[in-house]
Amino acid sequence: MPKRLIKKITPDHDTVRGHRHLQIFGTLLHDPNLFHMNRRSISGAFAVGLFWAMIPIPLQMVAAAAIAIIVRVNLPLSIALVWITNPLTMPPIFYCNYLVGNFVFQAKTLSMDDFKMSAEWISHSFGEIWQPLFLGSLIVGTVLAAIGYTGMRLFWRWHVIHHYKKRHKADKPPSAS
Predict the structure, then answer these.
(1) pTM for the whole thing?
(2) How many other β-carbons are positioned within 10 Å of the β-carbon of residue 167?
(3) Of the four, 12, 36, 87, 117, which is 20 to 30 A from 109 by CA?
(4) By the 8 A CB rule, do 31 and 38 touch?
């Protein structure tokens, strides 16, 4: 079942409740529905986590946790999926988001040769890149959220049907030939 795989990759309840950035949610973290593993909760968590992973803001985990609490989807998975954008993957992902935003704005695109990963370069160029970056991030985040939600619902359904057929086939007595 997909539950076993998801349980392996998500943090446990106590780890989530004890995280220092999530303490602002207080007793809301004690809602057991935030830790359920069912088709609705998992697919919603994929949507929340993938969306916030694409948004270039600090403390994406807190934003994902807040939305997961509001819409009552699996909290640990929502938080874990935000880590798709980590220090190694952020530059290429956010550059692609920037390119999507530039395509929509039909603006001049900065090349990767012009890019330098430094606070000085970012502060100097932020006025020029922030609009395409955030618009592209919203578009990519929304598309990935929709794909993640739909894909997880379809995968879960396929897995349940496959498991049912396998079990039903095993329960049938062999026919006499």
Answers:
(1) 0.77
(2) 9
(3) 87
(4) no
